[in-house]
């Protein structure tokens, strides 16, 4: 049974004191997780240790990095390595968020390298894909997303691709207040699952968790998560509010 995941992406937000307060507030809220449900919180790198300490003893709750580099170590000032994450007990990282692709020119080939080093070192990659508004308006979103997935993930074995979490994020709905309708989101997430089935098989595709990201909030999470191919969300702004994100966690049920 594939995992249902409520993932938070704090991006470059909060001071240390604010991060500490948000974590305390979140973990004081009532939420419940079944065996196949997880919470993953991607915090800025300076707060990884703090967040990891806060989650000690909390089942099904994981801390994630927001980025990783393609080398294990070396003269790469400012980068974060898999060895660093492993030494802190961090088991997840976001890869290929649209902001990394756009602002830092991360290519599909470069992200392929990031995926590989994660899987080689037992770090779960949350692989982001998704189209900009002009692509959606030309009705070319399927081809665009297929290219991202094929060039970064389809070299993997059936066993390894099942270790990847895919997060589909329509760029036009990130931080804009616009959200794809549940039908629009389901349509492309079904397309992604079928793409995987065509490359591998139906059982492999059914094992991959595919999240939706793009202005997920407490008031739309339940409807989005009720779709058969949406396995949770990668949540940006709403994850900075403890009450809001706790409600999103509960929407997994």
Task: Provide a descriptive summary of the structure in words.
- With 253 residues, the chain is an alpha/beta fold.
- It has a single domain (4-251), classed as TIM Barrel.
- Helices cover 43% and strands 15% of the residues.
- Helix 2 links the parallel strand 2 and strand 3 (61-65).
- The longest helix is centred in the last third of the chain and has 18 residues, at 182-199.
Whole-number count of domains: 1
- For the secondary structure, the number of strands is 8
What structural category do the secondary elements indicate? alpha/beta
Stated plainly, the CATH topology is called TIM Barrel
CATH architecture call: Alpha-Beta Barrel
Descriptors:
single chain, about 15% strand, about 250 residues, alpha/beta, about 45% helix, 8 strands, TIM Barrel, glycolysis
Give a summary of the structure in a few sentences.
The protein is of the alpha/beta class and 253 residues long. 43% of the residues lie in helices and 15% in strands. It has a single domain (4-251), classed as TIM Barrel, CATH 3.20.20.70.
Write the layout of secondary structure elements.
Elements: E1 4-9, H1 16-28, E2 37-42, H2 48-54, E3 61-65, H3 82-88, E4 92-95, H4 98-103, H5 108-120, E5 124-129, H6 133-137, H7 141-153, H8 158-161, E6 165-168, H9 182-199, H10 202-207, E7 210-212, H11 218-225, E8 232-235, H12 242-251
Parallel strand pairs: 1-2, 1-8, 2-3, 3-4, 4-5, 5-6, 6-7
Subcellular location: Cytoplasm
Keywords: Cytoplasm, Gluconeogenesis, Glycolysis, Isomerase
EC number: 5.3.1.1
């Amino acid at each position: 049974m594939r995992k249902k995941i409520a993932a938070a992406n704090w991006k470059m937000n909060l001071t240390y004191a604010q991060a500490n307060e948000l974590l305390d507030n979140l973990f004081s809220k009532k939420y419940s997780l079944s065996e196949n449900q997880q919470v993953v919180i991607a915090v800025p790198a300076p707060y990884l240790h703090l967040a990891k300490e806060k989650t000690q003893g909390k089942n099904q709750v994981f801390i994630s990095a927001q980025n990783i580099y393609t080398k294990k170590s070396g003269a790469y000032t400012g980068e974060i390595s898999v060895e660093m994450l492993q030494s802190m007990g961090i088991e997840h990282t976001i890869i290929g968020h649209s902001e990394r692709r756009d602002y830092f020119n991360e290519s599909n080939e470069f992200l392929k390298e990031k995926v590989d080093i994660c899987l080689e070192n037992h770090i779960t990659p949350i692989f982001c894909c998704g189209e900009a508004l002009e692509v959606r308006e030309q009705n070319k979103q399927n081809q665009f997303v297929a290219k991202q997935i094929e060039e970064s993930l389809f070299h993997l074995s059936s066993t390894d691709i099942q270790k990847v979490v895919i997060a589909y994020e329509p760029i036009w709905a990130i931080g804009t207040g616009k959200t794809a309708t549940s039908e629009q989101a389901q349509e492309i997430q079904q397309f992604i699952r079928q793409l995987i089935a065509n490359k591998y098989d139906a059982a492999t595709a059914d094992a991959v968790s595919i999240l939706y990201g793009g202005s997920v909030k407490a008031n739309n999470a339940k409807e989005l998560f009720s779709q058969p191919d949406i396995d949770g969300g990668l949540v940006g702004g709403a994850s900075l509010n403890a009450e809001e994100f706790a409600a999103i966690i509960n929407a997994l049920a």
